[in-house]
Design goal:
The complex is a heterotrimer of chains A (368), B (314) and C (333).
Chain A lengths: L1 H18 L46 E6 L6 H17 L2 E5 L7 H14 L3 E4 L8 H9 L3 E5 L10 E4 L3 H16 L4 E6 L5 H17 L4 E7 L4 H15 L3 E6 L4 H11 L7 E5 L2 H9 L6 E3 L2 H17 L8 E3 L5 E5 L3 E3 L4 E3 L10
Parallel strand pairs in A: 1-2, 1-3, 3-4, 4-5, 5-13, 6-7, 6-8, 8-9, 9-10
Antiparallel strand pairs in A: 10-14, 11-12, 12-13
Helix pairs in contact in A: 2-10, 3-4, 5-6, 7-8
Chain B lengths: L1 H26 L6 H26 L7 H19 L3 H24 L5 H20 L12 H5 L1 E2 L2 E2 H19 L1 H11 L1 H6 L4 H27 L10 H11 L11 H20 L4 H23 L5
Antiparallel strand pairs in B: 1-2
Helix pairs in contact in B: 1-12, 1-13, 2-7, 2-8, 2-10, 2-11, 2-12, 3-4, 3-5, 3-10, 4-5, 4-10, 7-8, 11-12, 12-13
Chain C lengths: L1 H16 L3 H29 L6 H10 L1 H15 L7 H17 L4 H24 L5 H20 L17 E2 L2 E2 H19 L1 H11 L1 H6 L4 H24 L13 H11 L11 H20 L7 H23 L1
Antiparallel strand pairs in C: 1-2
Helix pairs in contact in C: 2-13, 2-14, 3-8, 3-13, 4-8, 4-11, 4-12, 4-13, 5-6, 5-7, 5-11, 6-7, 6-11, 8-9, 9-11, 12-13
The chains are: A alpha/beta (368), B mainly alpha (314), C mainly alpha (333).
């Protein structure tokens, strides 16, 4: 019985696999991609009207002390510790913002929605969020706007109409280009690589993978994608999955992409312990603190990440500007404290800048 | 004797709930408002529906860990039937609920026909159903449902959130079923002593089969409500909801060894947890502090009730 | 419920009197044999598809990389055999790993960093055991509560800061002894020691009596409460040892609760044969089951099963193992 069921299941998986040919790589989503040019030509930004939402009957908050809650995807991981620190830094610097971070202990859409809903009732002035799901979070954010609360997102977006502004750490196609270019530089134009991601349902990761697929096809057509594996937000599982990839492909595998700040250090550890440093490159998104051992040992050449402290810092300043009325729809830039002027893109997004590439030379200058 | 002990635990719990409500309302004037309380009802409906069915299952000495995965599977199927198969949304919701019910039936068959202990059977289907949800969806979300569908999860009827009516209906029906019918008595007898139940000619297998099927059904209904509330489907929906539901049930006084428990107790337990989550947040306590406190309340409530009764379970 | 357990164990005793090595093996270690056969089948089939599966490196990854699950499942099996359960073990391991890493980085001697968390684990589980045994609160209630308290506590204390800069000597799980990875040795030695203890020592055997028929056990003079507390403390001991393997596997410690770890450990224990009704099961079975899961995870990658269907296939295999065991039992009675 088990065997028939199993074969039926495998047949089903094969057929559905063929049915979803939208992204050639497992783990990508099927939204349209927009790969950047292969050289450093910046993308032509198509002007887009403001498409964010507006709070109704928001009181005049100009110059007044704002009571702000920051709801990240989950608490208890280094990345969101860093964004939270950035928000606290900005609040301290301004002196007119009381910010507190409270998030679910698991990256769970329902817990996050419940938290935001309760904070709306508690009567905060502003909400900063990083969405676990762009669509699922939107009804509750719209409710916040209706209650006259200023809503600004960072890291992971909602539907545009459900928040006023979104601070974009780096555009998806920009990250994809940096990642694939770094990998190509390390393993050559004909190298084969695999991907370790968190889960296939995580929107940011799925978007990056889809953009990476498109960019690789366009600019590094001879590189070979082997497969994508899931490893939750679990560093031991990420380590085991990376090991399995190394063992399965042997010398064929030249590189591993880590798509999360959990997967990348674990992949680097797997490569280190397999004594494959120099033979298998690890390129990925990660926080510098977790990557220091591997970068100092020379096993990992470069780590890609925007500065999450800056991301939180910018989000807090954008919220302040929105509440003060200094950031209005149609603006082309916004002032964000020590970060200076940040550019507005895509109608209602504020761009943090290009991602930082951490190397042996600069990684010890960062502490997050 | 048994009837008396039910009342004991529930009275205790109700007093505790009243105390919590009073204390929390002193902490924040936004807590004890009709609007906030109704909204909390909206947020706890899915867990509540699952917990009500779980009360029956646990009262027979069983358990159903697969409910969160059935929720995920039914949610995914609501979207997939609608978008990929192209059925009208009302039909797909029914079809998804039907599949969830069948998933519950399969649990029941594994437990009654193959004699697999419920914990093991539903631990296996927990992995299987979640896996099916992920495989069928290929990690894609289905979004953009028509407006009318959101009435279920985001709308109101007569000023009360739509799904709260469903929860209310389920709670009343289940209370009557468990407390006043032959079927309900059968549940308790199975839970107290399965061998006795069998010798007294009660349909042990039939009752259990119906319970696990009902558990699948309520999880699937919760799934449709959940999709309507958050307006999208994801294969990881409902992860961990089984522990929330079990917490509410055991806090409500249902013995994990079977034989006792009431729907009213479960509902009070549910309200107590929700009140703590909401009220503590409004009073300025962060989420990690709240889950610690809920853990402590769970242990202390059962401890207190054991001390009062002096005749604890086992 | 207890009645079924007694029926099972008395049937087991009767069958023991029959002759025939194979039969006796099957009746004594039926579930273990099923799981072991599943492991062998899996290895043969996958190796035919991709011979690299049985390369030394991959075997090391499968066994050493998941040894902590097997070690934690040893204690879990004992808890389950006595008719209890513990859903807080994943959170406990997360907490202990954080303590361990913090001590190591703070410059305490390495052995303190390794073994103080073991003591803490035993202490926490002693409290759980007392609540279960003396306050008569069902173990699932106590451990559900403990899960919330440990998880919430860990987040509010650490805020999720990663621990890095661990001293190289601390990383015992990455070391080898005579060419064999330490986690593998730990897994085998601890499993065999626990198995021997449960089979040949009166204390160990009394656990089966306690789970199978508590009233009869008490009547025959077994101090039920004290034994229950002791089992939880032993479980805490194994969780502590599992933590050493868990925390020293990488050069960084995540200091969060590992997602779904308790579910993996419970699944290993019950699929390995620990009856949730209490009274039967062995720690050898739980270790084999932990190996089986680790091997399945690796095998799915080696056989190119679509990653979207991973969990469905794992669920199906677990279900198949459970059903195979039940059919075997029905046939043998």
């Amino acid at each position: 019985m088990g065997r028939t069921l199993l074969s039926a299941l495998l047949a089903l998986s094969l057929s559905t696999g063929l049915g979803h040919a939208a992204s050639p790589w497992t783990g990508g989503d099927d939204l349209p991609t927009n790969p950047l040019a292969c050289d450093a030509t910046p993308a032509k930004a198509a002007p887009k009207p403001y498409d964010g939402g507006q709070p109704s009957k928001a009181p005049d908050r100009k110059g007044k002390t704002l009571n702000v809650v920051d709801v990240p995807k989950l608490v208890g991981i280094g990345y969101f510790n860093a964004t939270s620190k950035g928000i606290a830094d900005a609040a301290k610097e301004m002196g007119t913002m009381k910010a507190k971070t409270d998030g679910p202990s698991k990256a769970n859409i329902d817990d996050q929605i419940t938290l935001i809903d309760n904070y709306i009732t508690s009567g905060v002035d502003g909400i900063l969020f990083a969405a676990n799901d762009p669509v699922a979070i939107s009804p509750v954010l719209k409710k916040a706007l209706q209650a006259g609360i200023n809503v600004v997102g960072y890291d992971a977006n909602s539907e545009p109409g459900a928040r006023q502004w979104f601070v974009n750490q780096a555009e998806f196609n920009g990250i994809a280009k940096t990642m694939v270019d770094s990998m190509a530089a390390e393993i050559g134009e004909e190298g084969a690589f695999a991907i370790v991601t968190s889960t296939f349902t995580t929107p940011n990761q799925a978007r990056w993978i889809a953009e990476m697929a498109a960019y690789q096809k366009k600019c590094h057509p001879k590189m070979k994608w082997l497969e994508t594996v899931e490893a939750q937000e679990d560093n031991i599982l990420s380590f085991n999955q990376s090991n399995t990839l190394i063992n399965k492909y042997g010398d064929e595998l030249k590189g591993i992409f880590g798509m999360t700040s959990v997967a990348t250090p674990a992949a680097a550890d797997a490569v280190t312990q397999a004594k494959k440093c120099g033979q298998v490159a690890v390129v990925g998104l990660a926080t510098p603190n977790a990557m220091k051992p591997y970068v100092s040992s020379g096993c990992v050449k470069s780590v890609v990440l925007w500065n999450p402290v800056d991301l939180g810092y910018a989000a807090a300043y954008v919220l302040r500007a929105v509440a003060d009325g200094t950031l209005q729809p149609g603006a082309t830039s916004v002032k964000a404290g020590r970060l200076g002027e940040l550019k507005v893109i895509n109608g209602s997004e504020v761009l943090l800048g290009s991602p930082t590439v951490f190397t042996k030379d600069n990684i010890n200058n960062f502490d997050f | 004797m048994t009837l008396r002990s039910f009342i004991r635990h529930e009275t205790l719990l109700a007093l505790l709930l009243a105390l919590v409500l009073v204390v929390l309302s002193l902490q924040s004037d936004k807590f004890l408002t009709v609007q906030n309380l109704l909204n909390q009802g909206r947020l706890m409906t899915e867990t509540g529906l699952i917990a009500i069915a779980m009360t029956f299952v646990i009262a027979t000495g069983g358990i159903d860990l697969s409910v969160g995965s059935i929720l995920g599977l039914s949610a995914i199927l609501t979207g997939v039937f609608w978008q990929n198969v192209g059925l009208p949304l009302s039909v797909t919701a029914v079809a998804a609920i039907a599949v969830g019910t069948i998933a519950g039936l399969v649990n029941g068959i594994i437990i009654t026909r193959f004699k697999v202990p419920p914990l093991i059977a539903t631990l296996a289907t927990l992995a299987l159903y979640r896996g099916l949800a992920e495989g069928i969806s290929q990690a894609r979300s289905v979004r953009g449902y028509p407006e009318w569908f959101y009435v279920l999860g985001q709308g109101s009827v007569l000023g009360v959130p739509t799904q709260l009516w469903i929860l209310l209906l389920a709670a009343v029906t289940a209370s009557i079923l468990l407390a006043y019918t032959r079927y309900g008595r059968t549940v308790y007898v199975i839970g107290s002593n399965e061998v006795t139940a069998r010798f007294s000619g009660l349909s042990v297998e039939g009752t259990k089969l119906a319970l696990y099927t009902a558990s699948g059904f309520t999880a699937a209904v919760a799934a449709v409500i959940f999709v309507s509330r958050v307006s999208t489907t994801r294969s990881d929906m409902g992860t961990g909801i089984e522990l929330d539901a079990i917490t509410a049930v055991v806090l409500g006084g249902t013995s994990i060894f079977g034989g006792r428990g009431t729907v009213l107790g479960t509902v009070i337990g549910l309200c107590l947890i929700q009140a703590l989550k909401n009220g503590l947040l409004l009073a300025g306590v962060k989420g990690d502090g709240t889950i610690m406190l809920i853990g402590a309340v769970l242990i202390l409530a059962i401890l207190a009730s054991n001390l009062f009764e002096r005749s604890g379970p086992r | 419920m207890a009645v079924t357990g007694v029926e099972l164990s008395s049937a087991r005793l009767q069958r023991n009197r029959r002759s025939g090595v194979l039969k006796r093996l099957m009746s004594d270690y039926g579930q273990e044999v099923v799981v072991f056969a599943a492991i062998i089948t899996l290895f043969v089939v996958v190796t035919m598809i991709n011979p690299r599966f049985v390369s030394a490196n991959n075997l090391t990854s499968i066994f050493a990389g998941n040894a902590y699950i097997a070690v934690a499942a040893i204690g879990m099996s004992m808890v389950i055999i006595t008719g209890n359960i513990d859903v807080s073990v994943g959170a406990l391991i997360g907490v202990l790993a954080t303590i361990s890493g913090t001590l190591a980085v703070a410059g305490y001697p390495i052995w303190v960093a390794w073994f103080l968390p073991v003591l803490v684990g035993m202490a926490i589980n002693a409290v759980i055991g007392v609540l279960v045994a003396y306050a008569k609160i069902p173990s699932i209630v106590v451990t559900l509560g403990a899960l919330s308290i440990l998880r919430g506590g860990l987040i509010s204390v650490t805020g999720g800061t990663w621990i890095s800069n661990l001293p190289p000597d601390f990383l015992i799980a990455q070391k080898r002894l005579l060419g064999v990875p330490v986690p593998l040795i730990a897994m085998v030695v601890l499993t065999l020691a626990a198995a021997a203890w449960m089979r040949y020592f009166a204390f160990g055997r009394s656990l089966y009596a306690l789970g199978g028929n508590p009233e009869a056990a008490v009547a025959s003079g077994i101090p039920a409460e004290r034994r229950t507390v002791a089992v939880f403390i032993i479980h805490g001991f194994f969780a502590g040892l599992a933590t050493i393997l868990f925390a020293t596997q990488l050069q960084v410690i995540q200091s969060t609760v590992p997602p779904n770890l308790e579910l993996t450990i419970i699944t290993a224990a019950v699929i390995g044969g620990a009856s949730i009704l209490g009274g039967s099961g062995t720690v050898v079975g739980s270790t084999l089951a932990a190996i089986l899961f680790a091997a399945i995870g690796s095998a799915l990658i080696f056989t190119n099963v679509s990653a979207y269907w991973f969990r469905a296939v794992i669920g199906l295999l677990i279900l198949a193992t459970v059903l195979a065991d039940m059919l075997r039992r029905q046939r043998s009675t």
